[in-house]
Structure formats: C-alpha cells, structure tokens
Amino acid sequence: MFRRGDALLIVDVQNDFCPGGALAVSRGDEIVPVLNRWIPEAAAAGVPVFASRDWHPTNHISFKARGGPWPPHCIQNTPGAQFHPHLKLPPDVRIISKAETSEVDSYSAFAGTNLSECLREAGIQRVWIGGLAQDYCVRATALDAIREGFEVHLIVSATRAVNVKPDDGKQAIEEIRRAGGILEETLER
Q1: Which residue among 12, 29, 105, 135 is the active-site one?
Q2: Residue from 18, 29, 135, 137 carrying the catalytic annotation
Q3: For the chain, which residues make up each domain, given as ranges?
Q4: What is the pLDDT of residue 1?
C-alpha cells in the first residue's frame, strides 16, 4: 500500500471539530482509531506524516462576529485547537498551520502554507488524506493536492462530514473522485 514517494496527510483532527467542541462534526471522533491504524503503517514504510490544523487568532474573519459562517473555533494556543488527545501522531509529524492571520480564511491545507513545497522537497508524489471535515477542509485539501499534481488517495473511512445540507459529504467525495482522487475504504495490507 504505502511506498516511497507517499505521504499521509491528516487534516484538522482538532478538539473543536470533535464532539463537545465549538464546531463539532457529528461522530468526528470516530475517525481517530481509523487514523491510528494508518499512522504506524506509514511509519513502518518510512512515509512522512503531515498534520494540518486550523490555527486562528481570536478575531478571525471566519467567525460570526466578523460576518463569517462559524462560531469561534481552533483559536491559537487553546484546548480547542489541540489535536484530539487520542490521535497518536508520530514524534516526527510535520505540523502545517493554516488560517493563522485574522484576515485570511483557508479550508485547504495548501492555501497560504508551505505544504506543497514541503511535499515536493520530500519527493512526495502520492498523498493519502483523512481528517475533518469531509465536505470542507478535507475536500479543499484533496482538490488542491490534485491541482498541485499529486496523486490523491482519500481514506473515506477516516473522514466525516459537517453536512450542512444532508448530502454535502457525499457530494464532496464525488467531486474529489471526479477530479481524479482515488477513494480508499479500508487499510489493506
């Protein structure tokens, strides 16, 4: 499954996006054990692990107080911005912070970050993606990765959707597939 030139990208598995958080994704915490099975497989194959995170200032443009659609979430250096406590990130995980200035919003882990450069410098050609939320940050990250020329494998069982509209998650998965993403359901040995 994993091979040289691959990377595992975990998108925004933060406390505020899990049950009990400020912007909780229904059953978002259910992806943690799934990802915890993929992480050691990546490590065993020598595949780097990247983890993106929202890293918002207190007055971020996406917050309702500024006219955005969301309640305050993933505020820098708060418990809500921390990765889920049961997510077993490796010691050498490469953390990618996004939307970390008040005037710039970003759903994609590629937008306004050096992720693309980091992946290219590491010789990455295929990116395996899981995380939150399927219909927002995972979708945007997967589509940007495809646009950047990476082969994208979406780990469907390691994502959950917000579903503002009931089929948003299904539509996001289909959009990723139509763009060239490869859908992976389970960890295959």
Answers
A1: 12
A2: 137
A3: 6-184
A4: 86
> Is 12 an annotated catalytic residue?
yes
- Where do the DSSP E strands lie in the chain? 6-11, 49-54, 94-98, 126-132, 151-160, 182-184
Residues of the chain with pLDDT under 70: 186-189
Is the domain covering 6-184 a CATH 3.40.50.2300 domain?
no
Given a contact cutoff of 8 angstroms between Cβ atoms, the answer to whether 54 and 35 are in contact is no
- The catalytic position among 98, 105, 135, 144 is 98
The two tokens of residue 76 are 């820098």
pTM confidence score: 0.96
Mark whether 6 is an active-site residue.
no
- Cβ distance 28 to 83 under 8 Å? no
The answer to whether 18 is a known catalytic residue is no
**Could you give the residue ranges of the DSSP H alpha helices within the chain?**
31-44, 115-121, 137-147, 168-178
